[in-house]
Design brief:
Shape: flat
Number of strands: 0
Largest sheet: none
Radius of gyration: 21 Å
Strand content: under 5%
Number of domains: 2
């Protein structure tokens, strides 16, 4: 894993990708820091970081688009897959390399709350906690982008796919408001979600018996529950989707000054999930 990590970190700085990624993040963080904190006199640097979240949609795809898709296109993935290194070590090495590149602008941003502290009454502890949450949120997005990159050999498709997913996640809190409230529509929506999950399970396991059995059990459970008590399904989709919003945890740090331990565990769980999915995606191709 160490060799993979060193190779990947070097590759980001042997090309312009690493420098462009760092320049974009540092540039936008600096602009909002200047506008809100230095010129506007706002004491919380966390407010500036909250305004920068949209830039993840552009910066993260630049960082992750080549992680695996470039290997597939250039056929160098065959060397990796036949090397005496485990798939998990390859995936973790690449992921940690991207996290290292991402950590550089995050570390530079630490200077901002320190400057605010020297200029007057700052909130250093709150701002440092928010920077930590910012780093974890970016790490979640990187894990998602890495997984999408493992699914295709086209860097363009990888970048566009990652951008689309991150745009959806950015708009997620607003999109929830348009979900239906009636029990019948919520049941149909939950059934669609279960079907998608079952399809993903089948794509990974190729076991149609388990997949069909799981689908049948879930459908029967939903139908029986619906006829027993329809009220359970009212507004259920809104409740489910509001609980998986990524930005809410960051906002707890940035705007509510709450050190959200549950949110940190949630971020780490999502990172672990997408690393696992990436490993399974590579493993599937290894034996195909």
């Amino acid at each position: 894993m160490k060799a993979i990590y060193k190779r990947e970190v070097a590759s980001y700085f042997n090309t312009v990708i690493g420098f462009v990624f760092i320049a974009i993040l540092v540039g936008f963080i600096g602009i909002y820091f200047l506008a809100y904190n230095l010129a506007g006199g706002y004491p919380y640097f966390s407010y500036s970081l909250g305004s920068v979240l949209f830039i993840f949609m552009l910066a993260i795809p630049i960082l992750t688009m080549r992680s695996f898709s470039d290997e597939r296109k250039s056929k160098t993935d065959q060397l990796l897959l036949t090397a005496p290194v485990g798939i998990s070590s390859i995936v973790l090495g690449k992921y940690l390399a991207m996290i290292t590149v991402f950590a550089i602008p995050v570390c530079i941003s630490i200077l901002c709350p320190i400057i605010i502290e020297f200029k007057g009454d700052g909130f250093l502890l709150v701002d440092m906690a928010t920077i930590f949450a910012f780093f974890l949120l970016g790490s979640v997005y990187i894990a998602i982008g890495m997984f999408i990159s493992s699914l295709t050999e086209s860097q363009i498709i990888s970048a566009v796919g990652t951008f689309g997913i991150l745009l959806l996640l950015y708009l997620w809190p607003n999109l929830i408001e348009f979900l239906p409230a009636t029990a019948s529509m919520n049941m149909i929506g939950i059934l669609c979600i279960i079907t998608i999950v079952v399809c993903i399970i089948y794509a990974i396991t190729k076991n149609w018996v388990v997949s069909v059995g799981l689908e049948v059990v879930c459908v029967l459970t939903l139908v029986i529950t619906y006829f027993v008590n329809q009220d359970i399904f009212e507004h259920r989709l809104s409740l489910i989707f509001s609980n998986i919003s990524f930005i809410d945890t960051f906002e707890s740090f940035a705007y509510n000054q709450i050190f959200d331990i549950d949110g940190i565990i949630y971020y780490l769980s999502i990172i672990g999930l997408f690393i696992y999915l990436t490993i399974q995606s590579i493993q599937k191709r290894r034996w195909s």
